[in-house]
Amino acid sequence: MPDFESLQTLLMVLTYISFAFSLFMWGLFLYYILLSSFAWKQKPEIDAEKFAATKKFAMIIAAHNEEQVIMGPIRSIKQMTYPEELYDIFVIADNCTDDTAKVAREEGAIVYERTNDELRGKGFALEWMFEKVFLMDKKYDAVCILDADNLVNQNFLTEMNKHLCLGHDAVQGYIDSKNPDDTWVSGNNAIAFWIASRMVQLPRYTIGLSCVLGGTGFVVSLPLLKELGWGATCLAEDLEFTLKMVTEGKKVAWSHAAKVYDEKPLDLAASWKQRKRWMQGHFYCLFKFFKPLLKNAIKNRDFVSLDMCIYLSQPVIVAFNGIGMVSGIFFLIVLAIIKGTSLVAMIFSLGTILFLYIGIVFVLMEHKLTPTSFKYLLIMPLYNLTWVPIIIQGFFKRNENSWSHTMHTRGEISIDDIKK
């Protein structure tokens, strides 16, 4: 049995190691705080109405067994103010065993049914569809990617048309939620997207960095797609194509006004499965792109590439921060018992918790602070801690590429409900 003094010494050593690591963590936190400072005042946007509606869009909805919700995006697209002759709605019924294709056709979409037991997943389905779009007699200026559970606001394509006219080849829209009040899981998921949109995506666009494609609600010009090729077929195809663009010296723009509303998972099990898939794809991309991005950042003094390196490192930071927060609180309690309160542990633990609650400011700036969202914000640190085991799982399963489907059931929510 170790004596009391040995235990005390060990705890002190572990505390100072934790503190040393926290200095590194805080350096990265300060970077994000500095980045987010450009979100305090949104720069004036050019009025989209000043740009004539000229760009033609292929609206592509990837769907796998989504008969309960597929009518939502189709109906909301038809309610847009953009001229209907300048877009077509395509639905990929990918390996479906239900009536997704039938429902989509009844709603007026052009349906392509795909069956492939080996190349499964959204990335493969999109690549398959893009090749068909390239060969169509009707020529489009861009493709717009949506998920089957999405709804889009009325000015979505009007805003995207503006960005294409401004010369942007890839644009990510604002990903909002159509069910933020359903459960504490959907609520915290929605809050995370609100914070990321205001705290990370908008500032990156403001200061000329590259934003990150978010899987849905984005537009890519056909010339860029033909030039680079899609080739993004991992479990995080959106991130993979973003990094492919950045390595080629291109950037993703951001539209804070072009909103898409998606359905957030209702329970922790569904959310866990979805986020684990994201992390598997994220770590795959980290191992594939980190080295060339870092090399480019150093060789060409390219801050866009360096910022993407930091972004790719984010899950590792989150995991260590979560472990550090729990261990810091533990050390704080133990040291308070055996040798008074440790200032080192207190600063680390309480500072980390304080940082988590900075998000409330950005939720307020997005006009999303309601009694329900405030309640969910209070327990958000607990939700964030679930990222730690998810990130660890994603790391060890990064080379697995089996797609896991997230079930969507809130098809009764319409864009009119959102507007209310």
Task: Give an overview in words.
It is a single chain. This protein is an alpha/beta fold and 420 residues long. It folds into two domains: 4-39 and 305-396, no CATH class; 48-288, Spore Coat Polysaccharide Biosynthesis Protein SpsA, Chain A (Alpha-Beta Complex), CATH 3.90.550. It is built from 16 helices and eight strands. It has helices at 4-36, 71-78, 100-106, 122-135, 156-165, 184-206, 222-228, 237-247, 268-300, 303-339, 343-356, 359-365, 371-378, 380-385, 387-396, 415-419, and strands spanning 57-63, 87-94, 110-114, 142-147, 151-152, 170-177, 218-221, 253-262. An eight-stranded mixed beta sheet has the order 3-2-1-4-7-6-8-5, with helices on both faces. Strand 1 (57-63), helix 2 (71-78) and strand 2 form a beta-alpha-beta unit. The chain is globular. The N and C termini lie far apart (66 Å). The model has no long low-confidence stretch (mean pLDDT 87).
Which helices and strands, and how do they pair?
Blueprint: H1 4-36, E1 57-63, H2 71-78, E2 87-94, H3 100-106, E3 110-114, H4 122-135, E4 142-147, E5 151-152, H5 156-165, E6 170-177, H6 184-206, E7 218-221, H7 222-228, H8 237-247, E8 253-262, H9 268-300, H10 303-339, H11 343-356, H12 359-365, H13 371-378, H14 380-385, H15 387-396, H16 415-419
Parallel strand pairs: 1-2, 1-4, 2-3, 6-8
Antiparallel strand pairs: 4-7, 5-8, 6-7
